[in-house]
Amino acid sequence: MPELPEVNALVEFLDDQMTGAVVAAVELASFAVLKTFDPPASALEGLEVSGVTRHGKFIDIDVSGLHVVVHLAKAGWLRWSDSLPDTRLKLGASNIAARVRLDRGDGPTVGFDVTEAGTRKGLAMYVVATPTDVPGIAALGPDPLADGFELRPLLGRRMQVKRLLRDQKIIAGVGNAYSDEILHAAKLSPFAIAEALDDDEVARLEEAVQHILREAVDEARGKPADELKDDKRTRMRVHGRAGEVCPVCGDTVLEVTYAQSALQYCPTCQTGGKPLKDRTTSKFLK
Fold it and tell me: Where in this chain does the record put each FPG-type domain (predicted)?
């Protein structure tokens, strides 16, 4: 799933490519992808893109005051093209759910496809008058990279810290991968209870949130959209690396599976050398 750093890089790329262009057409190849009906997608045609911004993991394209909002979910992606095919999309013909054609002054030749792999469909597009008309945006917690962000006031909850970091209503933009990386950097167990963290642990967690996310944003910045997912994988220290060597201490990275997902951690760095119990059949982080 794309998280804050990858979405931020996509937004910067799209803002550079799209601002000032005119929307020539919005083509839908999936009945399910568009979650709104008023205003219709056709209302965007002929309007100019004013800019592209981010809200957590949501991409927000401002089109002369209307907003195209995209959430890529678990298996979605945005694929830019400098030379779109002339043929229109056909319903259900591929993994392309929607296409936006743009005219930068030389015809509707550029634009992007929104794609989704797999059978579980979570990709979502909205056409709204204001971003907060999207329920997911209206419910977002604070952005961890925003000026004045403070983590400490958000920790007074009796919930596992891994779950807290991933909860978009508490902190916007962090998902499964970067929560693993943050907890590894902070030397904290993913099962630690947020409200029970002592001052030193809170300080380490605050530092790790800022360091890991800012480092990832800097690494992703400027990379083409089609390289961002592979680049993310290569930068992970523990996430997705079960059975490999921890780059900090040399111990073996372990895994806990749960509710259609998994987390990875280093027992030496994070749990005092003790393996965590696998909770495959539990409701952990559901």
Answer: 237-271
